[in-house]
Amino acid sequence: MSKLQPSLDLNVRVATLADLDEVAPLFDEYRCFYGQPPEPDRARQYVSERIERGESVVLVATATPADGHVVGFCQLYPTFCSVETTPIFVLYDLFVAPSARRQGVGHALLRAAERLASDQGKTRLDLRTARTNGPAQAVYESLDWVRDERFFCYSKYSVPAGPSS
């Protein structure tokens, strides 16, 4: 494993629509990382709708000396845990630009997500990552995130409805 490079001077904040030009390409790269084809327009529309509708919170990390450009983001979806009867966040997306990796960006985004969750009364943050994404797992574990050994995750895709007869 390579050594951590010196940290960038980072600012993490909640994104607005003014950040869309920089967040959307990173979101598209994130989707490509998980095997989706590049679709810049779709990525832009998706992020724009989440921000406009208040359906998620997107945190962005900007760095100097990178002229304040967005170098990473994470997206949090508010939901609830019915067993604990409390509000939680699902941290569904976390991506750092390749040129900014190993410089503390992921750590900064995760710490900011933790603070935001606490400030908003969320009792927990949940996330999933690919079993093969060792670098991300190392970051999570270094910040005391605990891998679930009790539950399995399942998904079922819905079948799009055909034309009505």
SS-derived structural category: alpha+beta
* Number of domain modules: 1
Can you list the strand order of the major beta sheet?
1-2-3-4-5
The largest pleated sheet is described as: 5 strands, mixed
CATH fold label: Aminopeptidase
How do the helices and strands line up, and which of them pair or pack?
Blueprint: E1 9-14, H1 20-33, H2 40-53, E2 57-64, E3 70-81, E4 86-96, H3 105-119, E5 125-126, H4 134-142
Parallel strand pairs: 4-5
Antiparallel strand pairs: 1-2, 2-3, 3-4
Helix pairs in contact: 1-2
Question: What do these coordinates show?
Answer:
The protein has 165 residues and is of the alpha+beta class. The chain has a single domain (9-142), classed as Aminopeptidase (3-Layer(aba) Sandwich). The chain contains four helices and five strands. Strands 1-2-3-4-5 form a five-stranded mixed sheet. Strand 2 (57-64) and strand 3 form a beta hairpin. Helix 1 (20-33) packs across helix 2. It is globular and about 45 Å long. The relative contact order is 0.15. The model has no long low-confidence stretch (mean pLDDT 90).
